[in-house]
Amino acid sequence: MAVSRQSRAKAGPDLPPRSRVDPSVPLLLLSSTCGLVLFIMTRLAAAAPAADADAIVTDRIQVVVDRLRDRLGISESVHVSIQPRVALIVSVEAPVDHDAPFRLAIEDRFLSRLSEEELDAAMAHELGHVWVFTHHPYLQTEKLANQIAMRVVTRDSLVSVYQKLWEHGGTKGDLNTFLGP
């Protein structure tokens, strides 16, 4: 039986017989796509700006501050920031608003010089200022802040911080004035 041109046009083009797709093909496509996405994300993460690395370091220091704050019994919040330039190299400022946190700033170049023990000592010293401010706001002294800090760090670690601080700032001070005999 012959098929006319009209009925062939209605039936559509001649197609090869329908074949079955191997069931492993979709799985292979999915895993290849996931692998490509993972590769791209890894490359993007590796090329992430330095700001992300700074955030990681800031978060790590925030954990140190929160741990020491807890050990010193300080309930007030303290927000850490790393800055390219800090007038006092490391400092803490009281909040302007009652509900705002204290602001602790540390100069990035000085931070890079500190060991873990020295970082704890420097942060404990600044938290000593927070403790004094919240208990005796008119008695702020370096020596008193260090006495509070020595509840959680050693005198030797503070000596090391002062030596690096003075070297970094190009100054010199008397350890007994700051730490006592």
Features:
181 residues; mainly alpha; Zincin-like; 8 helices
Question: What does this protein structure show overall?
Answer:
With 181 residues, the chain is mainly alpha-helical. The protein has a single domain (51-179), classed as Metalloproteases ("zincins"), catalytic domain (Zincin-like, 2-Layer Sandwich), CATH 3.30.2010. It has helices at 5-11, 24-46, 50-71, 108-111, 116-135, 142-149, 155-169, 175-179, and strands at 78-83, 90-93, 102-107. A three-stranded mixed beta sheet has the order 1-3-2. It is globular and about 100 Å long. Residues 34-39 and 41-45 have low confidence and may be disordered.
Overall average pLDDT: 81
Largest sheet: 3 strands, mixed
Which geometry do the CA atoms define?
Answer: globular
Query: Strand order, biggest sheet?
Result: 1-3-2
Distance between the termini: 116 Å
Tally of alpha and pi helices: 8
Short description:
The protein has 181 residues and is mainly alpha-helical. The protein has helices at residues 5-11, 24-46, 50-71, 108-111, 116-135, 142-149, 155-169, 175-179, and strands spanning 78-83, 90-93, 102-107. The chain has a single domain, classed as Zincin-like (2-Layer Sandwich).
